[in-house]
Amino acid sequence: MTMLGDRQQLAYIASQAADARVNVELETEGMTLNIGPQHPATHGTLRIIARLDGEQVVWAEPSAGYMHRGYEKLTEVRTFPQVTALVNRIDWLGSFANEVPFILAAEKLMGVEAPSRAQHIRTILFELSRIANVSLFLGDLGVQLGAITPVFFAFRDREYVLNLIEGATGGRFHPNFDRIGGLKDDLPAGFIDETRVVMKKLRTFCDQIEDLLFGNEIFQSRTRGIGVIPKDVALSYGLSGANLRASGVDWDLRRDQDIPMAWNKTDFKVITHPDGDSFARCWVRLQEVRESTKIVDQLLDTIPAGPVMAKVPKIIKVPEGEAWVSTENPLGEMGYYVVSQGDQGPFRVKIRSASFNNISIVPWLLKGVYVPDIITILASLYFILGDIDR
Amino acid sequence: MGLVDRGRLPKPLTSLFNMGRSYSLWVYQWGLACCAIEMGAAFGSPRYDVMRLGVIPLPASPRQADLVVISGTVTDKMAPAIKRLYEQMPEPKYVISMGSCANCGGPYWDSYSVTKGVDQIIPVDVYVPGCPPRPEALLEGIVLLQQRIKNEDMGARWRGEGTKSMNIVDGESAEKGGVPVVVHN
Amino acid sequence: MFPLSSTTDTPTEAPRDTVREAELARILEALGAGVVDSLLKPNDDMWIRVTAETWRVTAEKLKALGYTYFGYVSAIDWLPSPFGKSEDDASGPSGERDSTIKQGYAGGDTRFQVIARLVQPFTTIGINIKVDVADEVMAVDSWSSVFAGANWHEREAHEMFGIGFNGHPDLRNMYLPTDFEGHPMRKDFPLLARIVKPWPGIVDVEPLPGDDEEEGEAS
């Protein structure tokens, strides 16, 4: 490790010396680099405009809006059950996790609580969607840093999780399974045994990725010390999820919040890392997949019997009021501020999505980095375009 | 290829060309939203493995591509970029519209910022419905497109008469030229 | 956490939330006359409404009180939609639609309100802060110098509602094409697709589990 550090130090000094020489000999002229709006390395349609001085970024600004679909306006013209189908598609890799905070907010306003079996199943599906989401991140991370193998592993093992979600809900991607007051259906026969097998496979996948990627010297030298976010900056930008925990903040809404879900009945570790660099962010996510598989295993053991749906009226009218519910989604804190005026549909829904805050730090973070590090930093921040633009 | 340039291409030669074209499609992946992940699963994952169909999903730029898959929601801000991409592609070029959003606007049919269908900007050859379509559905869309390419009259395209079918009946799935195909799933 | 209450027969004693009560008292003392109204829902959340002049100072004081985690800044248009509620048919005749403004928690006097949320890190105690935006001014002070994350949120609110933020470094459009006219999140912004064509999902009756009286009509 120290060897690597020394080598990095030497390379840095050499590059600085070379820069100084070039700057004296040649008057460097700035250059504007446009990445996107559609670029394989940006997880969708994010456009980044960077002003370069040689290889260094002087100023960079993400330009969002290429995926702006107007969720907040559309929720105002849908009824509460219809909104669920819509919000599924915000963070399209962890769809089920998007439904949960909205449904919880509506339940809070109605004074309804889902039966404990429904809460358990919700938590299981929530964690499964986290695993499906983050496992694709781990594969994609390799592609963006120049290693093509991990993505095949990720797509292979992600299919098992998607099959589970499809078996339970009928939808691979967008389950739309949550209802106000519970769930649409109970779990299918054989789900519990099948899930146990898949969780084992996923733990093996984590080991493989750790060997392939995180132990790789090139990967380490490309991510360690790149894009460091200090704790106080992370808080003032409102970063959340693994990005925040990688800056040494021990805060996980699953553990620290009292909401009617089953996380408080399980025992899991909240992973943090003190460094705050790109490596830390990726590492925290990898460990969180491991913890998620353990959460699912524990929940499968303790799943209670009973109904999955509370008594709610057929035509749902949510009483007047305002409610805020947020949960620890795969990308970070996702919250809904729901204002109801006693109608079938919400009056106003403010969607506080994790990636919007996570990516707003990019202009600050990209200042002074080298061009290849742009991709590393964006990959490690991990955003979904639907979650930024909504 | 003087024959081709003059627009007079005998049928056996056309069939030979079409066979070659349909099994060496270079696909540019224009991934926009949720469907991009299913497209990635179809193109990049070992389970679905699109290369066995003779499709190469790796061109670095639209200038090298024969086929573009528009997968996901097209917004009004994105639409000019898509049009420009399509114009950069060399003829003959094909478009697959993947998913409800690219087909017609999908769940965002009443949104203020979403283009209600990519066919308002560029001509579409195959529509793949679904929200998002399963990877298998996209593969079927590609197979349909290949059948269509096999049946195309290259001479007519060269003479500037647009896409025409050669009227070779290839089982029940022969598609008429110029009419978009919809995958039934 | 929430009572399963469709029946309100036995009057239980009001739930107490000593933690949030103490927090709210602390906040009210620090903000002084800047607070117009406040509300506390036990075991749920806190709301305060401040005057427009003290909007920026509120952020600074709350940050000093430990609310250092930035949630979001957004706005609410309290005008009832002239195109009807979500269950109404926007393409039908407009008829008599109620246009009286019904304000939410912690009250308000104007059509537009800016709302923000700050959280105490490592707990779940957060506070929702509202401020009235007068129609003739249509602007409040910017929070971007206090919380760096407010920058983008204020750009979004500016674009969606047309509310200005004094002192914001760069209120460019963020989402929409540059030639887009209007502010889409305002209630009087029409969704044209809904007006030209009725929406087939107006009736929303989905059979629930253990609920079979609708079965015969479904076919």
UniProtKB/TrEMBL annotation, chain A:
GO terms for molecular function: NAD binding; oxidoreductase activity, acting on NAD(P)H; quinone binding. Transmembrane segments: none annotated. It holds the Pfam family Complex1_49kDa. Keywords: NAD, Translocase, Transport. Residues 145-315, 316-390 form the NADH-quinone oxidoreductase subunit D domain. Belongs to the complex I 49 kDa subunit family. This is Unannotated protein. The lineage of its organism: unclassified sequences, metagenomes, ecological metagenomes.
From TrEMBL, chain B:
One of its GO terms (cellular component) is respiratory chain complex I. It holds the Pfam family Oxidored_q6. GO terms for biological process: aerobic respiration; electron transport coupled proton transport. GO terms for molecular function: 4 iron, 4 sulfur cluster binding; metal ion binding; NADH dehydrogenase (ubiquinone) activity; quinone binding. This is Unannotated protein. Gene3D superfamilies: 3.40.50.12280. InterPro entries: NADH_UbQ_OxRdtase-like_20kDa (IPR006137), NADH_UQ_OxRdtase_20Kd_su (IPR006138). Keywords: 4Fe-4S, Cell membrane, Iron, Iron-sulfur, Membrane, Metal-binding, NAD, Translocase, Transport. Belongs to the complex I 20 kDa subunit family. Coiled coil: none annotated. Residues 34-144 form the NADH:ubiquinone oxidoreductase-like 20kDa subunit domain.
